[in-house]
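Supplementary Note 3. Input sequence used for the single-chain structure prediction.
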Amino acid sequence: MSFPSSGPRTGAAVLSAAIGQHRVLADAICLANVAFDTVTKLSMRHTLPIAPQFYVTAPQACPYLEGRMERKLFTALQGEHAQRLNDTLSKQGFRRSQNVLYRPSCAECSACLSARIRVADFVPSRTQRKVMKAAGHLRRTATSPWATEDQFSLFRRYLDARHADGGMADMDVFEFAAMIEETPIKSRVIEYTRAAQTGEGGRPLACVSLTDVLDDGLSMVYSFYDPDLVHLSLGTFAILDHVAIAREAGLPYVYLGYWVPGSRKMGYKAGFSALEIYKSGKWQPIGDPADHRAELHPLSVDPIAEQVARISLPEARTVRE
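The predicted structure, written as discrete structure tokens, is reproduced below.
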């Protein structure tokens, strides 16, 4: 997305404008309309020639847990090292939205936990095997990140049926195109089509997944599907098929975004075997989901400056004070 040529912009102004205009779509988290007057720039204490700058958003209502406020730590994803930066930060709980990488960093809450499936150890449940069989007639096609009218039509139908009051409900075709196409890294659009019914032509879209290809796996940025096919559990099917794609490609993980204990929206992710969560600075098996609580505590989150100081960058050794 281009910015108005109204004079020079600082890095903070550019990122603030970008986040203000872009929708953060991964897991349906929205950063639009955030009051960025209070965005704080945090310098990195690393030895890269050009170290990324990190920022925090102003608090806003949490979309997952009622009565709580969310805040995000984020940085720009751009330049010749964008792919390596995305690979490295994805291993540390960050997610991509267009040309921005972000991670929850709430003041007193650490409920949002990045989740990924260990492909080699994944075993589908009986219900998941039924899902794969029921949707087995769909045809998969991997394409370049290029938005189409058919995709947008399906996206609108999905939002109207499933998230009519969500943060993305008013997205137009230009914002949709930006979500799909504005990627500085290796991304693919995975389309699943079905056989045409009477009066239809070609193979209509049933499900679409915007997927990033990382050096250690696939990251499912955003998925949407035909709401008339809800009986096929296409959201679950897309995850299962990405596990199959990763296995075929020899990639060890499928990244699912954030799992939030206590949130019904995110509860389904705990139903996949071999699930790991990024907690306390490391990946670990989820174990019993009931063991993870979403309690508020003033000491549950380290200060932002300490979080940034511990971030590892590609080919850089973290400098600790």
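The longest helix spans residues 234-249. The chain has seven helices and 15 strands.
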